[in-house]
Amino acid sequence: MRGWTDGYVTEIGYTYSFHAELQPWPLADALGARSPIQPGQPFDYCELGFGQGFSLALLAAANPRGRFWGNDINPDHVAHARWLADGAGLPNLTVSPLGFADYADTDLPSFDIVALHGVWSWVGPQQRTEIVAFLDRHLKPGGVVYLGYNVLPGWAQYLPLREVMLSSARRGQGSLADRIAGSLALAERLRTQEAGYFRVNPTVSTRLDALLERPVDYLAHEYFNENWHPTYFTDLAAALAPAGLHLAAQARAADRWEEEALKEAILTVGGKGAADDPEFAELLRDFLTNRPFRRDLFIAKGGVERRALERSWAALGHPRDLPRRATPATLPIEVPYDAAHAALTALQAGPMTHAALLACLGDQGPAALAVLAALDLVAPALPEEGLADRREGCDRLNGLLLADAAIADRMPALASPVTGGGIAVDRVGKLFLAGLAVGADPVLHAFETLETAGQRVLRDGKPITTAQRHKVELGERWESFAKRRLPVLHALGAVP
Fold first, then answer.
1. For residue 147, what are the β-bridge partners?
2. Rounded to 5 degrees, what angle do the CA atoms 408, 179, 200 make?
3. Strands 293-300, 245-250: parallel, antiparallel or unpaired by DSSP?
């Protein structure tokens, strides 16, 4: 198929998402004393296959003492990452268009962290071998690899759907986008004909509905690469073993919370085998949860344990964002609401140490903070030292992102000097902030920007038909944004 390189889609660029799992300081928090990086100290970070490079650039802006590197074989992706680096003045970001083997042969440092989000699932056996060789060559002793990847058995029932769509795309005509549209239409026709595959796999219909709502840039890379290989955890662990890597932790706080909740079930199912074999226990966990995607931290041999620093927390959400019950992974969480609400309320004024929070929360404090982390409502905060330097880089990048929001709906986050990471902000929110930055009425600024571009927001999934209704809708969104989002952004330093 035209536009494919070693089976990888290059005709259509990847999405502009910010992947929170790539952030270095939540990763360090998950590892504790085993973390290869410490606040205030320089470190080297590499992302292999960085897509549009937005996450990598944001992390470089928020961590001026780190050096950030990365590669991607799509020249448009590399050009976009360089545009971000130049526009935000990021001398600590270096990107390359080379493939994994050639990139490994360049003059690179030894890395504290190497990150791959989704890439392992979208490349073939040769490229996987090259990735392992890169890690063996360029990861420091005690260094960490973040891997996000499609996992079995969670993907098992959806593999045939992907296969029939890919087969249809191979035979189609026109651009890749046209062939993807034709493949989705074919899948819909199969469902309409009550195909046996859909009858015996009822969740596939739900998955197809979700695909029909997805943009083509997501579908092209997630489903239409020639190489697309969900894997069992045990097979991945075996592939990484020659580089001296073993599982250290799950990257997401929600998955670590679920890990604790499933300990007894895993031992009940697996018995002594699960108790003595951590890799087998992880395989059983994937069968118990049936999750389709894992986010793992693998650590290299030879590291040294460091003194654990006092942990501090920052709020990523407003107290009104707190649910009483949620399912951030595959198991529901009953929220210790009063203590969690009190913690979020206290953090609205700015970061607090773990000890200070526990002192005012009582017996439910540890559980409340664990749940808030699992719900992505709090994040580790960096020390005050170095904040001014981090703020400069964040302000430059955020200014670029606010300007970009006037012309495109992409890169849905801003950089935070408080966390050294990102905070989600959608396009309308960025338009409000851009208006505030120039002293304009935020609603009027957002309204005029969108109307000039011939665009309007949706209400209940439907287009707004008149300019007056559009302005009213934006006014209602501003009221919510000003009350619930703006204070959080101020506390995180994402807004001056």
1. 116, 296
2. 105
3. antiparallel
Q: Which amino acid makes up residue 152?
A: L
Beta bridge partners of 352: 313
3-state secondary structure string across 161-219: HHHHHHHHHHHCCCCHHHHHHHHHHHHHHHHHCCCHHHHHCHHHHHHHHHHHCCCHHHH
Give the E-state strand segments of 106-181 in sequence order. 111-117, 139-150
State yes or no: pLDDT of 381 exceeds 70. Answer: yes
Burial class (CB in 10 A: 0-12, 13-18, 19+), 202: exposed
Alpha-carbon distance of 478 to 476, in angstroms, equals: 5
Residues in contact with 282: Cβ distance below 8 Å, sequence separation at least 6, in sequence order: 233, 234, 237, 247
Q: What is the pLDDT of residues 290-308, one digit of tens each?
A: 999 999 999 999 888 777 7
CA atoms within 13 A on the CB side of 417: 22
The pLDDT score that the predictor gives to residue 310 is: 82
At 228-242, the pLDDT tens digits run: 899 999 999 999 999
Residue 387: pLDDT over 80: yes
First to last CA, the chain: 48
Q: Which residue has the tokens 């890597």?
A: 245
Distances in whole angstroms, Cα of residue 214 to Cα of each of 107, 203, 400, 426:
39, 17, 26, 17
At 365, the amino acid letter reads G
| Whole-number Å distance between alpha carbons of 314 and 488 | 9
Averaged pLDDT, 428-444: 97
